[in-house]
C-alpha cells in the first residue's frame, strides 16, 4: 500500500532537519500553528537541536535573529501559514541589512487551496521581497522526489551564508493529513561527511587583489592614518595589530570587537571629533565594518577631506556620507594582514599619542562628572552595564539612546561581545533578540529604553521558564527620550511635543515584568544599578533591573558631558 500523505510529510521534514543538522544547524525557534505541524515535529523530535517555542511569531523571529548573532550560524524560525508568516518581516529586513544568516520556514496551504478563500491562506510567494537572499518554494512533498530532499535542505541552508550572510525563505506547502508514520529516510548525499559543509560556515577567503592593494599600501605608507571600526570586524586582533604597528588610532564601535584595552583604541571618538584641531586631522581613513551610530562622526567623515578607503568583503557601498574615494572587497583582517606584510612606514609617534591623550582626558572628565550625580543617569547606566557584566558575557543594546550612550560614554572593555539591531536601526524585536542571544547559552545583558521594551513585551512570554541567564536593564523615562535631543523639542510647544514625540505611556514596568514572573530590582543611582546587575548574574536566571530617569534632566546632563569633555580635550591638546 502506498504511503499516506501524512507519512510523506513527516519523512520529508525529518530528512530536511537531518541534513541541516549534518551541515551544522544547532538552534530552531518554533511558533505554534497547525499547518506547520510536520516541520515542528521534525525539529522538536530530532534531539540534536536546541529548540525554543514562542507564542508570538514576531518575537520568535527576532529571537532566532539573536541566536544567529550570538552563534554566527544560521538559526531556523518556523511559522504556520497566513498572517503568521507576515509577522516575520521586520526581523527578515534586519537580518538582510545587517547580514545575519537565518533560515525562515513558512508553512503554507497547497496550490489547490490558493485563491479560493481557504482560511489562513495568503500569497506567500516571495513574501519578503528583496530582503531575502533567496525564495525557495518546496512544493507539497512527493515521495517520487525524495532523492532531491537532502539537496534542497543543503541549498536552502547554504544560501544563508553564501556571499553576504542573510535570510532565506523556504516555503513549505503541506497537504493533509499533517501527521503520519516515519518512513525510511533517503540516503546521504555522495561524499557525505559529518560536520559543517565546507564553505557554509567558514569565513570568506580574502581575494588576491595583487598590484591594486600594493598601490593602496603605497598611498597609505608614512601618512597620518585613522581607522574607523564598526560592527562586522572578522578578526579584531588583526586590526589592532596593524594599528599598533603603524601608530594609527582606532575609533572603535562597541560592536566591532575592537574597543579593548589597547594603546591604539579610542573609546570617545564622538567627543574628540567635536573639537576642531589641526593636531587631530588625518590624511587617510580606513573604514572597516558597518557605520557607527554617531552623527558627529558621520558629518566629520563627510567634510574632513582625508582620503577614505571603504573595506567590505561583499563590496557593498556602505557610505551614507558619500565620502569614500575607493572600496576594497576584502575581509578587514585580510587587508590588515596584507598591509602588515607590506611593512608600511608608520605615522609619527606623536600622532597616536595626541589621540590617546585626548581620549584619556575625555574618559576622566566623563567619570568625574557622573560620579558626582546623586540620581540615576542614562550615560552612567550605559557605562555600568559595559563595566559590570562578567567576562565572556554578551550585551544587546537597543537603538535610540542606549546605543548612542554606549558608543559615546562607555570605556574600553575586554572580553565582552556587543550586539545591536543596526541594520535597519529599528526598536522592534529588541527584547526577543536579547532572549535569542541568551538562548545560545551565553550570559547576556540587555540595555533598553522603556518604549522599545514596551514595543516588544511579547518577547517576555515564557522567559521565566526558559532558564536563561538574562539581565534586562530598562531605562524608564516615561516616553521617547531621544526626541528631546531633536529640534522638535524647542520648535514645538510642550503640549504638542509631548503628544507627538514625548508620548508618556504611564505603564508600571515593575507590574508588567512581575506578570511575566520576572523579579525586578529597582536602582536609585548608577552604583545601585551596577550592584543589581552583578546580583542578577550571580543569582542566574532572568531579572529586570529598572532605572527611572527624567527626559529633561537627561538632556541637560548630556549637554554638560559634551561641554566638560570638550574642555578636557582642548586642555590635553594644549599640553595642560
From TrEMBL:
> Which GO terms are recorded in the biological process aspect for this UniProt protein?
menaquinone biosynthetic process
Does the record bear Oxidoreductase in its keywords?
A: no
- InterPro entries hit by this protein: DHS-like_NAD/FAD-binding_dom, MenaQ_synth_MenD, MenD_middle, THDP-binding, Thiamin_PyroP_enz_TPP-bd_dom, TPP_enzyme_TPP-bd
Domain annotation Thiamine pyrophosphate enzyme TPP-binding: ranges: 431-545
Q: Which UniProt keywords apply?
A: Magnesium, Manganese, Metal-binding, Thiamine pyrophosphate, Transferase
Q: Which NCBIfam families match?
A: menD
Query: What's the name of the protein?
Result: Unannotated protein
| UniProt organism field | freshwater metagenome
Amino acid at each position: 500500500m502506498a504511503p499516506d500523505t501524512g507519512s510523506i510529510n513527516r519523512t520529508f521534514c525529518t530528512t530536511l532537519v537531518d541534513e541541516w543538522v549534518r551541515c551544522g544547524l544547532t538552534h530552531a525557534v518554533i511558533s505554534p500553528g497547525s499547518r506547520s505541524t510536520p516541520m515542528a515535529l521534525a525539529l522538536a523530535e530530532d534531539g540534536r537541536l536546541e529548540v525554543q517555542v514562542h507564542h508570538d511569531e514576531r518575537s520568535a523571529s527576532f529571537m532566532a535573529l539573536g541566536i544567529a548573532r550570538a552563534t554566527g550560524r544560521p538559526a531556523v524560525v518556523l511559522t504556520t501559514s497566513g498572517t503568521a508568516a507576515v509577522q516575520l518581516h521586520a526581523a527578515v529586513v534586519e537580518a538582510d541589512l545587517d547580514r545575519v544568516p537565518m533560515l525562515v520556514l513558512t508553512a503554507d496551504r497547497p496550490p489547490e487551496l490558493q485563491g479560493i478563500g481557504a482560511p489562513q491562506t495568503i500569497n506567500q510567494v516571495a513574501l519578503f521581497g528583496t530582503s531575502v537572499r533567496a525564495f525557495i518554494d518546496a512544493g507539497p512533498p512527493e515521495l517520487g522526489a525524495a532523492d532531491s530532499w537532502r539537496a534542497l535542505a543543503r541549498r536552502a541552508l547554504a544560501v544563508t551564508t553564501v556571499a553576504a550572510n542573510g535570510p532565506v525563505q523556504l516555503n513549505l506547502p503541506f497537504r493533509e493529513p499533517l501527521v503520519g508514520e516515519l518512513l525510511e529516510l533517503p540516503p546521504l548525499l555522495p561524499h557525505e561527511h559529518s560536520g559543517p559543509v565546507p564553505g557554509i560556515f567558514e569565513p570568506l577567503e580574502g581575494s588576491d587583489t595583487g598590484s591594486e592593494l600594493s598601490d593602496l599600501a603605497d598611498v597609505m605608507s608614512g601618512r597620518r592614518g585613522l581607522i574607523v571600526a564598526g560592527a562586522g570586524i572578522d578578526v579584531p586582533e588583526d586590526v589592532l595589530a596593524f594599528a599598533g604597528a603603524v601608530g594609527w588610532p582606532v575609533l572603535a564601535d562597541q560592536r566591532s570587537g575592537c574597543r579593548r584595552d589597547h594603546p591604539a583604541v579610542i573609546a570617545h571618538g564622538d567627543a574628540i571629533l567635536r573639537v576642531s584641531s589641526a593636531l587631530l586631522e588625518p590624511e587617510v581613513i580606513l573604514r572597516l565594518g558597518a557605520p557607527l551610530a554617531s552623527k558627529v562622526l558621520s558629518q566629520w567623515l563627510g567634510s574632513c577631506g582625508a582620503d577614505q578607503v571603504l573595506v567590505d568583503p561583499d563590496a557593498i557601498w556602505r557610505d551614507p556620507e558619500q565620502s569614500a574615494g575607493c572600496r576594497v572587497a576584502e575581509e578587514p583582517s585580510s587587508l590588515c594582514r596584507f598591509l602588515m606584510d607590506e611593512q608600511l612606514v608608520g605615522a609619527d609617534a606623536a600622532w597616536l599619542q595626541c589621540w590617546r591623550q585626548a581620549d584619556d582626558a575625555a574618559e576622566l572628565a566623563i567619570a568625574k562628572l557622573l560620579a558626582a550625580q546623586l540620581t540615576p543617569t542614562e550615560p552612567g547606566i550605559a557605562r555600568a552595564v559595559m563595566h559590570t557584566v562578567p567576562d565572556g558575557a554578551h550585551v544587546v543594546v537597543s537603538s535610540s539612546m542606549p546605543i548612542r550612550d554606549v558608543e559615546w560614554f562607555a570605556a574600553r572593555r575586554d572580553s565582552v561581545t556587543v550586539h545591536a539591531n543596526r541594520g535597519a536601526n529599528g526598536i522592534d524585536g529588541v527584547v526577543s533578540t536579547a532572549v535569542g542571544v541568551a538562548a545560545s547559552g551565553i550570559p547576556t545583558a540587555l540595555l533598553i529604553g522603556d518604549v522599545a521594551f514596551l514595543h516588544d513585551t511579547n518577547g517576555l512570554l515564557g522567559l521565566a521558564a526558559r532558564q536563561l541567564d538574562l539581565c534586562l536593564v530598562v531605562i524608564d523615562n516615561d516616553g521617547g527620550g531621544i526626541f528631546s535631543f531633536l529640534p522638535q523639542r524647542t520648535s514645538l510647544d510642550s503640549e504638542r511635543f509631548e503628544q507627538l514625540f514625548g508620548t508618556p505611556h504611564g505603564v508600571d514596568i515593575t507590574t508588567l515584568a512581575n506578570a511575566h514572573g520576572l523579579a525586578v530590582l529597582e536602582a536609585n543611582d548608577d552604583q545601585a544599578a551596577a550592584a543589581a546587575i552583578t546580583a542578577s548574574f550571580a543569582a542566574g536566571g532572568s531579572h529586570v533591573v529598572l532605572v527611572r530617569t527624567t527626559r529633561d534632566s537627561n538632556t541637560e546632563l548630556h549637554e554638560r558631558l559634551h561641554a566638560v569633555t570638550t574642555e578636557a580635550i582642548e586642555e590635553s591638546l594644549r599640553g595642560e
